[in-house]
Amino acid sequence: MSYTVINPADESIVTEVEHLDEAATDAAIARAVVAQREWARVAPADRARALRRFADAVDADIEHLALLETRNSGHPITQSRWEAGHVRDVLEYYSASPERLIGKQIPVAGGLDVTFHEPLGVVGVITPWNFPMTIASWGFAPALAAGNAVVLKPAEWTPLTSLRLGELALEAGLPEGLFQVLAGRGSVVGERFVTNPAVRKLVFTGSTEVGKRIMAGAADQVKRVTLELGGKSANIVFADSDIEKAAATAPYSVFDNAGQDCCARSRLLVQRSVYDRFMEGFEQAVKNVKVGDPTLEETEVGPLVTLAHRESVASFIDDSAPVAFRGSAPDGPGAWFAPTVVTPERGSRLATEEIFGPVVSVLPFDDEADAIALANDTEYGLSGSIWTNDLGRGIRVARAVEGGNLSVNSHSSVRYSTPFGGFKQSGLGRELGPDAAEHFTETKNVFFASE
Ligand code: NAP
Ligand code: MG
Questions:
Q1: Which of 23, 108, 334, 390 is the most buried (most CB within 10 A)?
Q2: What is the pLDDT of residue 413?
């Protein structure tokens, strides 16, 4: 079994990737078990050094990784470079963790009580196709830092940068078997991570549908899970905000990465009293988004990841769709889809379902209470933005919106030094931030009697 990687910008063949079967997956997990035992015995400072060497190897390979991602996934080259640099940064950040997994000494009678953060063993990381290398690093870097081995299954559509990271780990001197990238189908390699008892924790990023299935399967072995799932996040624009700035930045909060972003602000909630003024500025900004050849430095948005995914996105925009206006996209071969702005009814499919493409639903609201109710009227709760110049309102609304990653007067959501994850059906657990390595350990309490 193999998969043919197609460049989504021009439909040319990039390469063929061999798929592992169940037996090969089990063999890799068995090698990981052996490698992990050794790794956990390595002195913390030496584990830290090994991770820094891995970060250096990624740094030296940024241009190569970036070109691979652009050819495989269609990401604009400037964005691909940022993604590769982010992997380096995440590795550097967690290279500090082995020496900082500090336990507690707890006062008790008759002896000494201390806690240890013990590694779990083998961690299985399953990634989606939208940000292949960055999302992989959020799992493997803290997991390795905490003394675990990692098996990584990239999405079938986008395996190339993950496979390259596996090579770089070996070139940097990480032990054989400690970090293995296993290309294959979700139903084969991914399922085996769920059922093989030697895999002690699953880090899954992907759709809510598959995430639920993984959680149910993990229950059988009480296997630990972190889930990062879908979103339908709101960008809330109040009348008292800097409307021009809100309108100029809104396209990038939802059309970046062609909308294939779990944090995309795909619902744009605009206070009714400034609706027309906002839409005027927004239309201009959408028309200015540079959609095109992802190898060009000036390109802001590339194609969708595959022709199949374009079909899925296009199914939301039929003749009856309430399209307000659209941006541009190239004609000819490639999975192109022009940024699209729709004005659906509340509760309709466009307003509630994750499209995962460059489509934004604009919904007017009346007042603060209405905005909060509308923002929370979804099964998801991943990210969101709030635009207001009223400090009190910024605080009130940020506390009231059910979402794991909010920003006021900006659209930032992911920093490796801050926790990331979802409320409700957007996920379970948190990645990144200062505590992530601990999430790859078990706390062990030991009492030493002094009498
Ligand atoms: P997906 O279909 O759920 O697939 C995600 C990964 O799971 C892929 O590697 C897939 O392998 C694998 N998989 C599929 N079926 C499986 C099974 N039965 N057992 C184990 N693994 C299985 O998601 P996607 O279409 O790649 O990505 C889009 C989704 O990811 C969106 O819903 C998006 O919101 C979400 N996402 C969330 C975050 C976050 O941090 N919250 C970040 C990015 C994306 P195959 O590729 O072989 O099918
Ligand atoms: Mg899928």
A1: 334
A2: 72
Which atom of ligand 1 lies at the shortest distance from residue 127's CA? 9
53 lines ligand 1 (CB under 6 A): no
Residue 431 contacts residue 420 (beta carbons within 8 Å): yes
What is the rounded average pLDDT for all residues in the chain?
98
228, 300, 354, 431: which is the annotated catalytic residue?
Answer: 228
How far is it, in rounded angstroms, from Cα 164 to Cα 237? 42
**Residue 262 annotated as catalytic:** yes
Hey, whose CA ends up nearest to atom 23 of ligand 1?
Answer: 206
Round to whole Å and give the CA distance between 352 and 372.
15
Burial class of residue 441, CB neighbours in 10 A (0-12, 13-18, 19+)? buried
Which is nearest to 80 in space by CA: 251, 255, 235, 257? 257
Tell me if 190 CB under 6 Å of ligand 1.
yes
Rounded CA separation 420/414 (Å)? 7
Q: Is 380's C-beta closer than 6 angstroms to any atom of ligand 1?
A: no
Distance, CA 129 to ligand 2 centroid (Å)?
8
Give the β-pairing of 199-205 and 224-228: parallel
pLDDT at position 195 is 98
Which pair of structure tokens corresponds to residue 140? 């493997």
Q: Which domains does the chain have, with CATH numbers?
A: 2-229+425-449 (3.40.605.10), 234-415 (3.40.309.10)
Query: What is the DSSP code (8-state) at residue 10?
Result: T
The ligand whose atoms approach the alpha carbon of 260 most closely is: 1
pLDDT tens string 264-304: 999 999 999 999 999 999 999 999 999 999 999 999 999 99
CA of 14 to the centre of ligand 2 (A): 21
174 within 8 A of 146, measured Cβ to Cβ: no
Question: Is 263 among the residues known to form the active site?
Answer: no
Q: Can you tell me the distance from the alpha carbon of 167 to that of 172, in angstroms, rounded to the nearest whole number?
A: 9
| Centre of ligand 1 from the C-alpha of residue 45, in Å | 35
Which pTM was predicted? 0.98
pLDDT digits (tens, 9 = 90+) for 389-402: 999 999 999 999 99
Give the distance (Å) from ligand 1 centre to CA of residue 210.
7
